[in-house]
Specification:
This protein has 728 residues and is α/β, with parallel strands linked by helices. The strands form 7 sheets. It has an 18-stranded mixed β-sheet, with no helix packed on it. It has a two-stranded parallel ribbon with strand order 4-6. The radius of gyration is 45 Å and the shape is extended. Keywords: Leucine-rich repeat, Repeat, Signal.
């Protein structure tokens, strides 16, 4: 009995130990998989480990699994069934081509090899709220592929060769963003849920927007159609989109601005189209447009009152167009306008009242206005913009010159809020002292690359630059320098002493040649540069100063090059004619320097055919050699007709053992090396002629050609030989 009691105790103890071990193993944490990098704060990082299959076990509290940049091809249906807390699965950059049902709950499948989306591929994932399928090979999408995703909010499908979407059925009524850019789409996908607020369709092949294409997306706020091929936009295609705030139509083929735009539209971007004019009435007085960008179009004019009454308009961008004139009331009654950009336009005239009632304009950009003449400005150009803070005229010589002209003469109101006046890279030679009076609070006035005329009239600028406590910046890259007079050229204004300033009489009135040199020194070719203060800028009666034109650009340098080339050519012709006349005179006078034949030549003449026969034989040899050389050159250029055929024959001989590799090539090199030069052959020929003449008793005349003259041409040598033979 006692023994049975002890056995029962041991059994109970053993059972308890087994239960403890079992319970402990059930509640213990599963370690991080050995093939993963780390498991910290609920995120398992298994990226870039060359995995072909996902690990089977993860810690139970894992919410994020990162499997990016591996070699996974298939995600099975039970891959992550033991992870009830899993919220996000990252598998971008793998080789996945097959999706199984209920494999994941939240996933990023970008940059894989998925080719199609079937009807049931995503059906079980009813809690899925984000699908990322970017940069795959999807070309086919089933109409009901997203029908069961009732919680879907974000759909990313960019960079897939879809081409055409079917009539889709979306089950989610909370879908907010759809990105289908770079999908080669030819039309806008529809119908989309009304809840979509952000629709991105850029970089496709869409050619038109019809009136019903966007009828279902009533809550749309952002519409992007950049970089398509659009030529047609229906007038009332987006009128019903009362919440639309941003419309992107850049880089299309539009020739007009769509009519009946929603009044709630805040930003309109139509850069890079073919718009030539802005039609009247496009923007109503109730429009809430804040920013308008029409850069890089073909707009040549702006009709008066085009933007009148647009009380919310803040920024207008007309850069890189063909606008030549700003007429009266072009920009009028724009109380909120702060920024106006007109750079890169061939502007020639700004009429009176073009900027009327622009009380809040702060920034005016007119950079690189390259015109042939000075821009016509009215005296009230600046007073209409009393709150202007920045005026940028960099690289606009005609406009900057016109502004400097009206400053001393006009009754202008000082602009107390102007802080930056950029007139760098122009052709200004004089800065009127009234600049300091009209812009009392300016802190930056760059004068880089202006050919300044350092006379006493410009000494005030040096005083301003060296004033104690001055915070004004006068250059960005290089300090202002003198261009005239010549003795001060290249000197900075700060280095000139008071007794070095030039007088007006020392320099004189600017001539046309000086004008060209000033433009070249400034590095620009627009606008007529003036180098005198206003009181001395009037030319004499009858004097004309030609305005700059593009055809005069660099004219002086071209003339110098042509003159130098012509002089060099004349020198050569003169030297040739002198040598030729000298030879003819020597032949006529019979001045032939006697040239004794060598003993070898005298011995060779004994016991051999006559000199005439030798000459004929030598000429025949030379002729045959010349023909052979010509044929060889022809064979090298003419494909298999010559050189290649012979090379092929030699190769076949080498293979058959009948020839030695490289033998023919070495022989040709040796012959070429031992072959006499053209000059030596010519001398030998003349010696033979001399020997022949001496044997006939015709005297010992020889040709008057100097053997050491290496500069004569071959044609001149042949002419001289013919003359010598005729005279003898």
């Amino acid at each position: 009995m006692r023994r049975e009691t002890q056995n029962l105790r041991w059994r109970l103890l053993h059972t308890a130990m087994i239960l403890v071990v079992t319970f402990g193993s059930g509640q213990g944490e599963v370690p991080c998989p050995g093939r993963c990098r780390s498991c910290v704060s609920g995120e398992a990082d298994c990226s870039r480990k060359s995995l072909s299959t996902p690990p089977s076990l993860f810690p139970p509290n894992t919410t994020v699994i990162n499997l990016e940049r591996n070699r996974i091809r298939v995600l099975g249906s039970r891959t992550f069934t033991r992870l009830p807390s899993l919220e996000e699965l990252k598998v971008a950059g793998n080789r996945i081509s097959i999706l199984s049902n209920d494999a994941f709950g939240y996933i990023n499948l970008g940059r894989n090899q998925i080719r199609r989306l079937g009807e049931n591929d995503l059906a079980p994932l009813i809690n899925l709220h984000s699908v990322d399928l970017r940069s795959n090979l999807i070309s086919s999408v089933h109409p009901r592929a997203f029908k069961e995703l009732t919680s879907l909010r974000y759909l990313y499908m960019s960079n897939n060769p879809i081409v055409r979407m079917p009539l889709m059925e979306f089950g989610s009524q909370v879908l907010q963003m759809v990105d289908m850019s770079r999908c080669q789409l030819a039309a806008i996908p529809k119908p989309l849920p009304a809840s979509v607020t952000d629709l991105r369709l850029g970089h496709n092949s869409i050619t038109q927007v019809n009136q019903t294409d966007l009828s279902s997306v009533t809550d749309l706020q952002i519409l992007s159609l950049n970089d398509n091929q659009m030529t047609f936009f229906a007038d009332r295609a987006i009128t019903h989109l009362t919440q639309l705030s941003e419309l992107f139509l850049r880089n299309n083929r539009m020739v007009y601005i769509p009519r009946n735009l929603p009044n709630a539209l805040k930003m309109l971007y139509m850069d890079g189209n073919n718009i030539q004019e802005i039609q009247a009435g496009v923007f109503g007085s109730e429009s809430e447009l804040v920013s308008l960008s029409l850069q890089s179009n073909a707009i040549n004019s702006i009709q008066p009152n085009t933007f009148a009454g647009m009380s919310f308009l803040d920024t207008i961008n007309f850069q890189n167009n063909q606008i030549m004139a700003l007429e009266t009331d072009a920009f009028v009654d724009l109380p909120s306008l702060t920024t106006l950009m007109f750079s890169n336009n061939p502007l020639q005239r700004i009429a009176d009242g073009a900027f009327r009632n622009l009380g809040r304009l702060e920034r005016l950009y007119m950079v690189y206005i390259m015109t042939e003449e000075d821009v016509q400005l009215e005296y009230n150009f600046l007073p209409e913009m009393l709150r202007l803070q920045s005026l940028n005229l960099m690289g606009s010589p005609g406009l900057a010159e016109s502004l400097m002209n009206i400053l001393p003469e006009g009754h202008l109101t000082p602009l107390g809020e102007l802080q930056s006046l950029d007139i760098s890279y122009n052709t200004l030679q004089f800065i009127p002292p009234r600049v300091r009076e009209l812009f009392p609070n300016v802190t930056s006035i760059p004068l880089d690359s202006n050919p300044l005329r350092c006379t006493h009239a410009l000494a005030w600028l040096q005083d301003w630059m060296e004033e104690d406590g001055s915070t004004v910046t006068f250059y960005k890259a290089e300090e202002p320098m003198c261009h005239t007079p010549l003795r001060l050229r290249g000197r900075t204004l700060s280095s000139i002493s008071s007794d070095e300033w030039a007088d007006e009489s020392e320099i004189g009135i600017l001539t046309q040649t000086d004008d060209a040199s000033v433009r070249n020194a400034a590095g620009f070719g627009g606008g007529m540069a003036r180098d005198q203060p206003p009181e001395a800028r009037k030319p004499e009666k009858g004097a004309k100063v030609k305005a700059y034109s593009k055809k005069y650009r660099g004219r002086d340098e071209r003339d110098k090059k042509q003159a130098k080339k012509k002089a060099w050519h004349n020198e050569i012709e003169l030297a040739k004619s002198e040598r030729k006349s000298k030879k003819v005179k020597d032949v006529q006078k019979g001045k032939f320097p006697e040239k004794k034949s060598s003993e070898s030549e005298q011995r060779s003449a004994v016991g051999k055919p006559t000199a005439q026969a030798s000459l004929v034989e030598e000429r025949a040899k030379l002729l045959n050699r010349a023909k052979a050389g010509k044929m060889k050159r022809k064979g090298r250029k003419g494909g298999m007709k010559g050189g290649k055929r012979r090379r092929g024959q030699r190769a076949r001989k080498d293979r058959k053992g009948k020839g030695k590799k490289g033998k023919g090539r070495n022989r040709r090199r040796k012959e070429k090396k031992n072959r006499p030069s053209k000059k030596d052959r010519e001398r030998k020929r003349r010696r033979r002629i001399t020997t022949y003449k001496s044997k006939r008793g015709g005297g010992e005349e020889e040709d008057g050609e100097d053997d050491d003259d290496d500069n004569d041409d071959d044609d001149d040598d042949d002419d001289d030989d013919d003359n010598n033979l005729a005279l003898v």
